[in-house]
User: Which sequence fits this backbone?
């Protein structure tokens, strides 16, 4: 065993293969070719005089030697990251990297704003993909295929780190300008008498909040449908007489630009009753989520910039 050939990059590849058990996924996570992964794996096998990862139809299987080595390799990588974080000065001006950020529809504009107004002036060599989240991204974040996501409640994996940048404190009614709903007091009984089109924010909920609370008091709500797209909801609101609700201040800002749509803040007492219908075992709010796979100084710096920037924009929109 020639331990002198063992370098940091080979350790990273060892650890990544042990998680993914697939050379293609390792190459995707580390931004390298499959042939480079195979070359490093050959070096590792030569160093330890063991096959380490046995090929099977469904992917790699760890050998006994690999299972024995894995805790030590994880510890070496951890110690290296501690040194890098604590003893190496990070300069965003020279930082490089490409980052994928996925978010619910309402957040994509604000994320792009934070990137272009706050992040790129400090770190001009970074590049980004900001995409609308349309499915469960938990596995992709866990494996490092997506760097960050901004969500309400759709995450369950214990390996994903979540940081709440704002709690849900207000709910906003959305309806066509001149709708009869604005002529009455905003009570549960009054709201339940109108057709409802849901803006599907909380994937943990079996039904819209208004319908859920209405059922507890024997009031039926005629739910016409649901969408997670605020542009689509705009058409439903403008083309019919349905009402809707949102908890997102950026949604309210968007609708302030749409001629013919009006929003209004619901009374705090009714908002509290509606939010109590959400029982997901954590504080209801908006979260930045990511995996602990990427421990680079650039990722760490970017995480803090995104968190601070989106949080500040949220409270600016709240008028605080």
Assistant:
């Amino acid at each position: 065993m020639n331990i002198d050939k063992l370098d940091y990059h080979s350790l990273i590849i060892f650890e990544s293969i042990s998680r993914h058990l697939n050379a293609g996924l390792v190459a995707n996570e580390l931004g390298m070719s499959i042939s480079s992964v195979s070359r490093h794996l050959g070096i590792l096998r030569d160093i330890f005089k063991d096959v380490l990862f046995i090929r099977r139809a469904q992917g790699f299987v760890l050998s006994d030697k690999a299972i024995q080595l894995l805790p030590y390799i994880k510890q070496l990588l951890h110690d290296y990251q501690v040194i890098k974080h604590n003893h190496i000065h990070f300069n965003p001006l020279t930082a490089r990297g490409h980052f994928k950020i996925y978010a619910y529809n309402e957040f994509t504009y604000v994320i792009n704003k934070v990137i272009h107004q706050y992040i790129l002036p400090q770190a001009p060599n970074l590049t980004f993909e900001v995409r609308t989240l349309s499915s469960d991204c938990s596995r992709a974040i866990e494996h490092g295929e997506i760097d960050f996501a901004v969500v309400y409640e759709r995450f369950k994996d214990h390996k994903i780190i979540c940081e709440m940048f704002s709690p849900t404190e207000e709910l906003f009614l959305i309806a066509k300008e001149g709708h009869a709903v604005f002529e009455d007091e905003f009570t549960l009984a009054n709201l339940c008498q109108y057709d409802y089109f849901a803006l599907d924010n909380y994937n943990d909920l079996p039904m819209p909040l208004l319908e859920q609370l209405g059922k507890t008091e024997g009031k039926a709500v005629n739910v016409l449908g649901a969408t997670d797209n605020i542009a689509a909801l705009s058409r439903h609101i403008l083309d019919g007489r349905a009402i809707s609700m949102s908890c997102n201040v950026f949604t309210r800002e968007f609708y302030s630009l749409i001629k013919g749509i009006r929003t209004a803040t619901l009374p705090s007492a009714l908002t509290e009753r509606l939010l109590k219908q959400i029982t997901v075992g954590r504080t209801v709010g908006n979260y930045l989520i990511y995996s602990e796979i990427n421990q680079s100084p650039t990722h760490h710096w970017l995480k803090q910039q995104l968190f601070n920037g989106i949080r500040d924009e949220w409270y600016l929109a709240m008028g605080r």
Remarks:
- The chain has a mean pLDDT of 87.
- Residues 92-168+284-317 form a domain with the D-Maltodextrin-Binding Protein; domain 2 fold (CATH 3.40.190.10).
- The chain has three domains: 3-87, 92-168+284-317, 172-275.
- Residues 27 and 35 are 9 Å apart (CA to CA).
